[in-house]
Amino acid sequence: MNFASDTSAPAHHKVLEAVLAANQGYAPSYGADPWTAKACTALCDLFETELAVTFVNSGTAANALALSILCPPDGATICHENAHINRDERGAPEFYTHGGKLLLLPGAHDKISATNLEPLLGAINRSFVHETPADVLSLSQLGEAGAAYDVTEIVCLCDLAHAAGLHTHMDGARLANALVSTKATPADMTWRAGIDVLSFGFTKNGAMGAEAVILFGKMAKRLDTLEARRKRGGHMPPKQRFVAAQVLAMLQDGLWLELATHANTQASALADGFSHAGAKLQHPVQGNEVFVCLRGGQAAALRKAGAQFYDWPDGSARFVTNWNTQKSDIHAAIAALG
Amino acid sequence: MNFASDTSAPAHHKVLEAVLAANQGYAPSYGADPWTAKACTALCDLFETELAVTFVNSGTAANALALSILCPPDGATICHENAHINRDERGAPEFYTHGGKLLLLPGAHDKISATNLEPLLGAINRSFVHETPADVLSLSQLGEAGAAYDVTEIVCLCDLAHAAGLHTHMDGARLANALVSTKATPADMTWRAGIDVLSFGFTKNGAMGAEAVILFGKMAKRLDTLEARRKRGGHMPPKQRFVAAQVLAMLQDGLWLELATHANTQASALADGFSHAGAKLQHPVQGNEVFVCLRGGQAAALRKAGAQFYDWPDGSARFVTNWNTQKSDIHAAIAALG
Amino acid sequence: MNFASDTSAPAHHKVLEAVLAANQGYAPSYGADPWTAKACTALCDLFETELAVTFVNSGTAANALALSILCPPDGATICHENAHINRDERGAPEFYTHGGKLLLLPGAHDKISATNLEPLLGAINRSFVHETPADVLSLSQLGEAGAAYDVTEIVCLCDLAHAAGLHTHMDGARLANALVSTKATPADMTWRAGIDVLSFGFTKNGAMGAEAVILFGKMAKRLDTLEARRKRGGHMPPKQRFVAAQVLAMLQDGLWLELATHANTQASALADGFSHAGAKLQHPVQGNEVFVCLRGGQAAALRKAGAQFYDWPDGSARFVTNWNTQKSDIHAAIAALG
Amino acid sequence: MNFASDTSAPAHHKVLEAVLAANQGYAPSYGADPWTAKACTALCDLFETELAVTFVNSGTAANALALSILCPPDGATICHENAHINRDERGAPEFYTHGGKLLLLPGAHDKISATNLEPLLGAINRSFVHETPADVLSLSQLGEAGAAYDVTEIVCLCDLAHAAGLHTHMDGARLANALVSTKATPADMTWRAGIDVLSFGFTKNGAMGAEAVILFGKMAKRLDTLEARRKRGGHMPPKQRFVAAQVLAMLQDGLWLELATHANTQASALADGFSHAGAKLQHPVQGNEVFVCLRGGQAAALRKAGAQFYDWPDGSARFVTNWNTQKSDIHAAIAALG
Q: Per residue in A93-126, pLDDT tens?
């Protein structure tokens, strides 16, 4: 019963088979290999558009590199106060932007609302040199509380940001889960909704370690700078074929959505079970994460039964499902709740 | 006949088997997994000492992170003018040290000599605030021209550096090849010789993508800072077991030395063949790299025969062998030289 | 009637006379001059302790350099959300700390309270590598709303910070005004209260452009690093005598406190006048700043009468007095309020 | 007999009188004052063109800020190996460019020659992501050995740089001395010769502490970024009128050229005297610096007679004259040489 994190799960066997298959003979290093080229094409197909893309090993690297080409050192990125880029990346955005600020917004279920965003955008005065203006809006999909932005919300927030002269970034570490949950297409949820740069995560969804940074539309022109920053950050793996092969395996026949669907289904089942047992859900379940308010001895009972999960700073308990979560795990957890 | 780079070679099948074997069930993320713990222990055994270690995916990351805990932003690192950290990492050391300088030394066969180092150390004036003093000496093993430092040379250079108040770093991207060539033990060539921090590379030697940053002696106390910088740099992979498993596979039963021995043997055979054919070697062959001065149509003849290699800035041609180089490749190359 | 800012005021004539007097003959450059040495001695006398000090031209430089030796790149500084270092220095702290974070606290009258500080300190987990821990507490004297911390408050906040392993910094851009207002001694309000590093401002108080960064107690050992950072930041003026001479003039015969007393007295008179006229004060007046809630046409009337002041983001109007504010200005402003 | 440095000299009395005159009443802070506006106009007149300009207190700040808008973090600046930006600014360029590299060229008399520059430019491969390409050429006027580039040389070097896609910077800490020596106009030696950004120094020439960063032509569009970086660097003085007033005083009636002419004349007289006494000049005297090879007890004799000067790393002795150097000093030094 491991609900600690989707990063604790193994990789899907098809991913490893693809890595094995890629281990044949010589291949140009540093991204000039055919697997990388194929993964680029596959992403163009998936997103129904031309795009530029590069690959890295970790979500933190993807986010920080994405921000490094959007936010100047004397600029700022707006994000939710609980965003992963603010709370869980040890200042990686500040490092890669050379000191760019994060401007933090509150918001229910760790989502930014237009109501909170508008006054911050309205207060920007680019001619006032003393104050750091915002240059980027970063949205997390899923957010840290497991909630998903739907396409309408993203359109609204991106429109506001663009009108104020900002670029937009999506931390899509769990994009697959959000897409499954909201029944949106990758194109509709990203560039068609106004997202300029996307961190597209595969690791939590079932890869060993593979993330893409995708530049949509005019942003594609910044690929050279992104590649220079990637090299400079130590994120250009010599044998890049092994990263690209993972992405290809995930995209092949929709494996990535299949795995996310499974994880989401298990989360919903867990949430339903918890609800029926009378436990209150802290946040809407719109992906593979369940935040539940446990009473009295419930946490202890669950842990005694072998369940692993995190106590969350908001007072709830966080349960994360993954592509490998078994129905029996769900049943056992619900039973342990009593 | 791919002699372009050892990074173009595939990974050894035992490395992939180990990765597959590590893909069982859940494991704590971000380095708290048992593979990481075992790899630490294996490295302690190998180096015959207590040490602190962390793992990353690329050699550039290993070097830059190592320097980040040795060289302050207002300090400098001495290295050879052709060192990988100066010529081939797009400023990663400057990025990770927040602007620390590289002080460049010339030297035959891309090696630093005591003769060149001493005047630079002698000129350091730490009380003169205007000039950037050196804080680190970084040696590359192999150097960029394929030459190895022997233990005596390392002892001499490290003694000079320590006496002048510097710390020492070794970029061991091809440490295995240097050890095989000089018949030294890992301990004798590193900490016993005065190396404080080691970038220990496995990727060029046969892994998919795995490098260790090793802190010897008192440097081990800097592990917390190194881990913070690693996270901040985006180099703490969520599913770190897949990196540690590669290291374990390489160390198991001396596979890493076996592979380096093979690569070195092929390089020697290639060098001998070239010499017999009358071609002049530009640098001593002390690892898996051969730099040869080609005449007239020799380069064209080799390429026509299918050989891949690089024209080097010093006018020679670089041939790199690897764990997977076939004897038939060597024979074909020598035959093509005519 | 210029109440826009104390930075709009001229310098006191004694400061300029001291600069003129310092312009005699040759003097060693970059801080080795006798004026700098005398200013150090004068500050030791003033603070009744040994200390290390350096001088710069702007308050932003003083703050950013102070933080650069207290907060590592992977660390954070706690400050009030409206602190000058967060709102008005265009990211200078992030620049000089190479990406260190600012952790923002709310608090009435732009002051940090123990109530708000304690939970933040309590949540620090230095062994959790993903989250940025706090390394510094920075207090502003005066705060952005013109309120002063009294010695008891500073002692309490510094004790909490030190107990949690933080260092403490005071942005004393208007330290003189706070000292006059609270009737504390420089020593009691700073190092005896637990302040480790002080930015001591003279510019707003009557100098042309002179600020000191003072390292108390064990912090004095960091002077070499501070000097290296100062040089590297371009803040080591070749003819430093002209900066030191300003500091000496301000300290001579207590001129600095005399000027602050004058400014505070004018602010009190202005506040009293506004209150008698029925206007509500937004914040306590504990220095040379008055924040008043203006009604209906009052702001327009004041401006029509020639008064310069700022509309503040909290809805009030800010009036800043200075060493040169005339009683007639105060009377005219009160009269204009009606 | 102080020949240590022109930074040891006092400021000219007209500069101080201008500062005194500027100390009248209130003035908008942070550069919105009329002195700053007038100084901008005066510089446009002087350089016979539209330009954008900002002012700082030190030459290191001017250079580092200039480079910060020309050289990206993943780029490089070409300069002479003995350039002030490389040897004497404690890494300020690396700090302000966030880790941009300095690519060092040798060259007689500390000047870059086309012969040395061309191969470096020719080797730039902007599509090779591993190596840092050059983005800026920085020339020092005077160079560190006291030699001046003439207009023809600057045109040639700037043409080469521009053709290779670089921008050009001039460190004009002693621009006045070079102009006097070469009889060129400010416009001819800078923007008409191809200089994009100029650090224009007044401090060594007779100001207290005032330097301008001037953006010519299309570079003027980068003023907003420059101002943001200036604020962020702590180099936007609250009472900026006192800096601008110095610049105005220096430009008034050609004072700056008059002072440089005096300094140069003294240097020439010193050099002539040394030559007649049989001492060999190490470098051509083309400004206010004399580098002479002293024999036997000459250095001791000079110092015994009260002369202050520096032993230079190239084995010569450096004598710097300034606006305040007296003929009697020259005579005494020559006499002491014997």
A: 999 999 999 999 999 999 999 999 999 999 999 9
How far CA B131 is from CA of B106, C199, D45, D85, in Å, comes to: 20, 26, 37, 10
**B90:D104 CB<8 A:** no
In terms of CATH architecture, what is B255-337? Alpha-Beta Complex (3.90)
> Which of D9, D23, D91 faces C11 most closely, judged by CB atoms?
D23
Q: Where, residue-wise, is CATH 3.40.640.10 in chain B?
A: 12-253
Smallest CA–CA separation between B263 and chain A, in Å? 15
Of all residues in chain C, what percent carry a pLDDT higher than 90? 98
Whole-prediction pTM: 0.98
Per-residue pLDDT tens, chain A, 338 aa: give them. Answer: 899 999 999 999 999 999 999 999 999 999 999 999 999 999 999 999 999 999 999 999 999 999 999 999 999 999 999 999 999 999 999 999 999 999 999 999 999 999 999 999 999 999 999 999 999 999 999 999 999 999 999 999 999 999 999 999 999 999 999 999 999 999 999 999 999 999 999 999 999 999 999 999 999 999 999 999 999 999 999 999 999 999 999 999 999 999 999 999 999 999 999 999 999 999 999 999 999 999 889 999 999 999 999 999 999 999 999 999 999 999 999 999 87
Chain D residues whose CB is inside 8 A of the C242 CB are: 11, 208-209
pLDDT, one tens digit per residue, over B138-182 is 999 999 999 999 999 999 999 999 999 999 999 999 999 999 999
- CB-defined contacts B:D, below 8 A: 58
% of chain C at pLDDT higher than 70: 100
Give the residue from chain A lying closest to C102, CA to CA. A101
Residues forming a β-bridge with B51: B216
CATH 3.40.640.10 in chain D: give the residue spans. 13-253
| Nearest residue in chain A measured CA to CA from C93 | A99
Nearest to D228 among A129, A227, A232 (CB): A129
Quick check: A235 and B203 CB within 8 A? no
ipTM of the complex in this document: 0.97
Q: Which of B74, B90, B131 sits opposite D132 (nearest CB)?
A: B90
Contact A7 B239 (CB under 8 A): yes
Neighbouring chains of D at 3+ CB pairs under 8 Å are A, B, C
| Interface probe, candidates A60, A81, A94, A312, chain C, greatest C C-beta count within 10 A | A94
Cβ of C74 and A89 within 8 Å? no
State the residue for tokens 């914040």: C283
B12-253: in CATH 3.40.50.1390: no
Sheet strands (E) in D122-248:
134-140, 167-172, 197-201, 211-216
DSSP secondary structure of D217-271: GGGGGGHHHHHHHHHHTT---TTTHHHHHHHHHHHGGGHHHHHHHHHHHHHHHHH
Residues of each domain in chain C carrying CATH 3.90.1150.10: 255-337
Residues with Cβ within 8 Å of D177's Cβ and at least 6 positions away in sequence, in order, are D142, D148, D205, D260, D263, D264, D286, D287, D288
> What are the two backbone dihedrals, phi and then psi, of residue D60, each rounded to the nearest 5 degrees?
-60, -45
Contact B8 A29 (CB under 8 A): yes
What residues does B320 pair with on adjacent strands?
Answer: B289
Quickly name the fold that domain A13-253 has: Aspartate Aminotransferase; domain 2 (3.40.640)
Residue A178 parent element (H or E): helix A175-182
Chain C partners of B225 at a C-beta cutoff of 8 Å? 72, 74
Residue A314 CB-density burial (10 A; 0-12 exposed, 13-18 middle, 19+ buried):
middle
The sign of the dihedral angle between the CA atoms of A166, A172, A178, A182 is positive
pLDDT at res. A312: 96
Taking CB atoms and an 8 Å cutoff, what residues of chain A touch C101? 91, 94, 102
